[in-house]
Amino acid sequence: MIEIQNLTKRYGQILAVDNLNFTVEKGEILGFLGPNGAGKSTTMNMITGYLPSTEGTVKVAGYDISEEPNEVKKRIGYLPENPPLYTDMTVDEYLNFVSELKKVEKSKRNQQISDIMEMLRITDVRKRLIRNLSKGYKQRVGFAQALIGNPEVLILDEPTVGLDPNQILEVRSVIKDLGKEHTIILSTHIMQEVSAVCERIVIINKGKIVAVDTPENLSKAISKNSRFIFKISGEKSSVVGALQAVDGVKNVEVNEKIEDDVYEYIVDADKDVDVRKPVFFAMAKLGYPILETKEEELGLEEIFRELTTRDIAVNAESDNSQEDTSQEVPKEDEEAKENDGAEEQAQTDDKEVE
Length: 354
Hints:
Elements: E1 2-11, E2 14-24, E3 29-33, H1 40-48, E4 55-60, E5 63-64, H2 69-73, E6 76-79, H3 91-101, H4 106-120, H5 135-147, E7 153-157, H6 165-178, E8 183-187, H7 191-197, E9 200-205, E10 208-213, H8 215-222, E11 225-233, H9 236-244, E12 249-259, E13 262-270, H10 276-286, E14 290-296, H11 300-308, E15 314-315, H12 331-340, H13 342-353
Parallel strand pairs: 3-8, 3-9, 6-7, 7-8, 10-15
Antiparallel strand pairs: 1-2, 1-4, 4-5, 9-10, 11-13, 11-14, 12-13
């Protein structure tokens, strides 16, 4: 549904986005992650047609953004981090205005707007001025405008900013449901959100892709050890000795005491070595029952930190995996240009397009 090829954006001498290549399949929810200043917003602005690329192509449903921008834009619903709201309108007026812009048939507007309001739980504020809404409600109204016209592709940049915990869970559920019929790119700094709704992730750092894969595969790729947690009933020193004697075990740690003679043990083993069977037989020999066993994987936050704090590429699907992830442009310069100078640059790019 979305195909990104050699996508590059330069601001003068600053290389904000460097030769990105990835695809998003129809009906997929893709997490798009990166630290501040990594080039996420610039990339999403190029995908949606808000910014022109310096090099490379963006295709949505087979249409090239540079050759057929209107065909691409009518297939995309975009929620930027700061939603484009007209605060002197009521919610009803604003969503009707957006419906006109998106050329939704008049006969379908009222029903579509009502359905979207119900989905995002903003029906009770439909007659209120947007300026008088809380930040959370404003965010959901911004989400609603992205859904007007039932676009095939949704680009969501921090969709749960400003929401309370209950609202966050509601919006995550909405995104999951939308993923059944829409292709979604979700950008957020909340790793739990990505884990909850995304099937695959792209991580960029300093303008380059450093990872494209499922969280599970990335965890296995960058983990230095296999880690297992056992809850075992038995004499502690005997258990530790038996665990240390198992082939492939590198380290044994007593994590906590659960009850009398029941402890939780963390066992680090050689990478890709599954020690569960030999541990079972070792404990059976001692007559000690294993009450619980689980394999521990790196969490998404650990994966993110690992991939964005050192030069490493783990990318099974893109040619970017063969590139050096180092970047000669200072991060603070990139952040200043992307975040502080975005409005000035957008005006410059508009002139270039004209």
